[in-house]
Amino acid sequence: MQGKVTAGEATEAELARVTDLIRRMDEDWRRIVTYDVLQRYPRKCEDDEFFELLIDYTNRATFNLQDKSNRAEKTVRNRLLNQLKDLKKRDRYIDSMPAIIEIENKLNDMEERENADKVVNYLKSEVLNGEKITPHFLSLAKTLNNDSLEKIKKDDGSPFGNKKEREAHIVNFYKNLYSLPNRMPADFTNCVSEFLGPEISGHPVVTGSKLDENEKI
Description:
11 helices; single chain
């Protein structure tokens, strides 16, 4: 039904049905047990296993919904194309011109919507693929990594007493790694100019590359 709604072919009854399903879905979601309540029950699996399955099932459900919607919209498109062909095959189809124009407008809308989705996905891929993958990183990605966290040791090389201790060490390591340095200034005004120096900052290439206020906005 969502595919037919997207294609602009849903009846009033189907539109009402979709609205009702969305309302019921919101009501069902509000009846779901809260996270705080779930935390009171004993766990039957590890956190990583739970979230791995959660992601897997969510992906499957999402792809399934998208596939059904796309197939429904494709069915509508094929039906409209067949109707258009039948109308244009007639010897005197001038009487069918209003129906032909209506069908062509629907097909144009569907084509524009599909192209708009492709543009959005293209822009997303540009952002995601903005940095080229180096051959070294690619070889690492293709290599099956069987390393275990148990290989991580304390700073003195001794093993950790338990899993929680090792996890705390990993968290602190990355926390310190990505923390702001103590010498970082509080005010960054003119920091680029000071870094480049007066000679480079005053060069026409640099001054001509600066944005004016409208460009900044």
